[in-house]
Amino acid sequence: MSRTIACEDRDFVAWRGGADHALIWGVLVDTDEVRAAVDSARAHWADVLLPRYDRQPHVTVGYGGPVPKAGAAPEDPPYTPERIAAARATIRGLGIEPFRLAIGGWGTFRMTPYLCVEAPELDALADALGENRRRPYVPHVTIGHYGVEVPLDEVAARAAAWCPPSIEPITVTGVTLLRYDAADIAGPLTAVETVAF
Q: What's the domain range around 108?
């Protein structure tokens, strides 16, 4: 039987290799309704989650990598200005126009539970930015990290008793490059730039 993976709220020193920050491409969905749904889910599953998750609601569509730093040796290739420029051109080349995405329902990976997200444009962005090459892409808004190891079936069974706040479809007008502190697995995101549709 599959079980959750208990995460640790700590600095993963070997992974970041001295890098201070890392970058992802994402769609920000930091609205009152989405925050209320995340807060509601965190309260419902509080006993199995790490106590802290400070990242704003967002849907990742591409992992960039660590921000280059002299002397750093992270496990992942640094996300250089040249790679950012190539990703920016790729996003613009897709010709995506503003679109609406739906958020609702509960799902889970082994390390993190999430709110389900639907919009075909997200899959196109993930394909273009390489997210599908890392793992099968599942658009989602992360609720937090599991802090204990328990059977996934037991965690999932509790979704039937959860009544999430309703969320109106959200209009997406661009993709944002987001930075986070590489030493903090649950720290906030900072917007670096947005590629508008």
A: 13-196
Query: Rounded to a whole number, what is the largest CA-CA distance in the chain?
Result: 50
| Any domain includes 142 | yes
How does pLDDT run across 135-148, given as a tens digit for each residue? Answer: 789 999 999 999 99
Query: H or E element: which one contains 157?
Result: helix 152-157
Could you give the 3-state DSSP secondary structure of residue 171?
strand
pTM of the model: 0.96
DSSP string, 44-84: HTGGGB-S---PPPEEEEEEEEEPP-TT---SSPP--HHHH
Does residue 7 lie in a domain region?
A: no
**Beta bridge partners of residue 27, listed in sequence order:** 59
Beta bridge partners of 106: 115
Nearest to residue 80, comparing CAs of 60, 66, 63? Answer: 66
How many structural domains is the chain composed of? 1
Residues 4-35: tens digit of each pLDDT: 999 999 999 999 999 999 999 999 999 999 99
Answer for the pair 114, 165: CB distance below 8 angstroms, yes or no: no
Question: Residue 57: inside a domain, yes or no?
Answer: yes
The CATH number of the domain holding residue 90 is: 3.90.1140.10
**Eight-state DSSP code of residue 106:** E
